[in-house]
Structure formats: C-alpha cells, structure tokens
C-alpha cells in the first residue's frame, strides 16, 4: 500500500473511525512484528509472551487509544513501540508481584551496550524514564524511539517532528542522564 493510504487511514483513526485501525494493521504488521521481536529478543529466556502475542496485545491497547492526532506512519510506529514497552513493564510488575524470581531482562540501547536488569530493575528503569519524561518529554520520546522502536536518528526525527541534529543531541544527553540515574539506583549503569 502507498504511504498516502497509510496516512489517510491514520487521519481516519484520528477522526474516530474504528475500522481504520483494522485496515491499517495489515499494512504495518511486519514492522510491528520486527519491533516486538527486537524487544522480546532482549527479554529473559523463557518469557511467556511471543512476538505475535506482544503485537496482538499492542493492537488491543491501540484500539482503545482515543483522541490522538496521528501524523504519519513513523508517529504510529513510535506510539506502538511505546505501547509494547508498557506491556513488557506491566508484565515485569506482575511478575515481581508474584515473586517468581528475577531472571535478567536486557534493555537494548542503540549505540551503547545492552543493560541486563532483573524484572524489578526493569520497573526501576521504567521509573527512570518517567522521571526523564517529567524533565523533558521529547528526551523520553527519543529514548523510546531509539531503544524500544529501533528507529534510526532520521526515523526518530521524523516521528517527533524535529531535526536529526536535535535527535543526536537529545540522544547523547539522554544516554548520559540515564547512565547517571541507573548507576545511582543500583540498577547498573551503561558501560560506555
């Protein structure tokens, strides 16, 4: 399908046409599976969510997203990546509540080594991202796009409506800030 068709479906979704998401998903399904696979690849072994299950859970949550003014495909993918992150964090919280152990979860940070954290530390990492968002929402969105969405600098810039140079600066700042915060929380810091 043409990029214009996707943009039109996103506009239809913004106007409340519920069936637009049903028509959009087949067009972006492979891309959503790649994002889900990338996120799950770094989870602990034996994780009960499959790539397909994560995409389907994200779909169920996206169906209930109201009043979003979708810009384009990149914006939709960025939001879908964030929804998948929330699903994995919710899963980690439930797992921690059940006290079933603490296998390591890997959080991929593009351009930096992965961080291995236990389920409880994934919750701490999520809290750290929430604090970053309180300081500057765009910085948090850059981290989400780059880490959880696997987006390039240019794709992130397009999704956020900013320049690649701004994304590079935000990414450098965010990595340094996360390193400091994670090292201070005991969740471990970035090694570089």
Largest β-sheet summary: 2 strands, antiparallel
Please tally the helical runs, counting DSSP H or I stretches of 4 or more residues. 8
Order of strands side by side in the largest beta sheet?
1-2
Number of domains: 1
Quote the beta fraction.
under 5%
Helix content: 55-70%
Task: Tally the beta strands.
Answer: 2
Summarize the structure.
This protein is mainly alpha-helical. It is about 70% helix and about 5% strand.
List the helices and strands and how they pair.
Blueprint: H1 3-14, H2 19-41, H3 51-63, H4 73-97, E1 104-107, E2 115-118, H5 119-135, H6 137-148, H7 153-160, H8 164-185
Antiparallel strand pairs: 1-2
Notes on the protein architecture:
- The protein is mainly α.
- It has one domain (3-185).
- It is built from 8 helices and 2 strands, in the order ααααββαααα.
- It has a two-stranded antiparallel sheet.
- Strand 1 and strand 2 (115-118) form a beta hairpin.
- Mean pLDDT is 77; it is low at 110-119 and 188-192.
List keywords for this structure.
single chain; 192 residues; mainly alpha; two-stranded antiparallel ribbon; 8 helices; 2 strands; disordered C terminus
